[in-house]
Amino acid sequence: MTMIDTTRPAVRTATAAPIGAARLIGAGTGPDLQSHLARLGPLPTGPLRAAALITMTEAVGLAGRGGGGFPTSRKIAGIAASRRSSVLVINACEGDPTAMKDAMVIGRSPHLVLDGAITVAQAIGAGRVVLASHRGSDSARFLADALLERGSAAKRMKVVTVPARFVASEASSLVNYLNNGDARPSGRLAPIWESGVDARPTMVLNAETVSHIGLLARFGADWFRSVGSIDEPGTALVTVNGAVRRPGVVEVANGTSIGDILRLAGSAPAGWALIGGLAGRWADLATIADVPFTTAALRSNGLTKGVASISVIGEGGCVLNQAARVLDYLAAASAGQCGPCMFGLPAIAADMRALMKGDSAALDRLRRRLPVVKGRGGCAHPDGAVAFAASTLGVLTGPESGHLRRHLAAGPCPERGSDIPLVKVGH
Amino acid sequence: MAKQLALIVDPIGCRAHGLCAQELPEAIVLDEWGYPILAAGPIPPHLLRRAKTAAAACPVLALKLTRAG
Description:
By secondary structure, chain A is an alpha/beta fold.
């Protein structure tokens, strides 16, 4: 079935596939349809069938770029198996304040996001496409403007803005909001791929993920694999911020080392950084400079790619001070529905703050509370906070144990690093 | 093979009444805020009857017995 007409080209030019790692946000990108078509040409006429899209996304190992990292081919296969008309939700919220990569691809290439969404919607026979973004965000405006340019070709797509809260962009929160205006997670008991928006099978894909599909549909799997590593072909958007000379979003071939990513941001890899967002892990940049920034390599080093952000606090930064700030934020961001999250996160945040002020008993309380809270919420929010807190304790009882002793002896330290970003620009 | 059952709690529905832990202390303990922590895995056969009682005791129907696995 055809849901949305493939965009007819305004200008028909033989367009070459992008060369190198500048695929999503490189030179020639712009928010308007004309520069989009001039750079990439139109989507191929004749939509991809579900089987072809599944084969293609599997061949290039595409995995969700919103933080979950779930194989996109399996998601598509699951929803395509249903005979009922489905709903495709593009998650353009990017709730984690350390990341701005989705905002970047949407600002530079909103039409590529639409192309990816159209490709998937046609393949799975989605009757509706929802582009979900935070209320008042730049992303919401770019997507709405891009939809206007598409005219009637985009009549089954619409932008829906959701409250700009961290947990509001969790997949089941989005579905809940679209159903009843309540942007809180609905728990794990009703899978959205069976019963999501309007009780229809629903698939939520991240904005960067579908942008890659917009290119894959044009240029194919061999082109996609021409950069990147064997296991994780293609490129990735990485947000680098904090104590670096040129903070921002870079697009790199998968497999690029953390050190090289830092150098793209104008700085040598040094000091502590939070990798993967607020549910991420701390890493000493000097010791992991050679580690490729891929899901597999990060995991085998005890790290997580998460939302693909690197927030550098630098050599003068204090992991403990920052952890107390981040946990206060995560506790306040709880949707307040599940007891272990509603009461557990404030308790953990208070413990971390007490430890920062020199309360040695707080260390035991944290060790007791973290495993109790883990896995007991309706969404992954408390698990992310627990993993972050555990990573902090790992650093403070390992390589920074000297610094922890200093806190226990003398209380808060005079920190000279950069803060982990907790407020978003453009939101 | 006899079908195995396990307890699950709907964390959003749960209001920390705590009645479940009174009915089945062998498999349910309460955390410091009064919310249940369930023993992992299937309910042993000799506890099944009281597990059903515990699920039925929940005033907000947040505790359920489901097939394990």
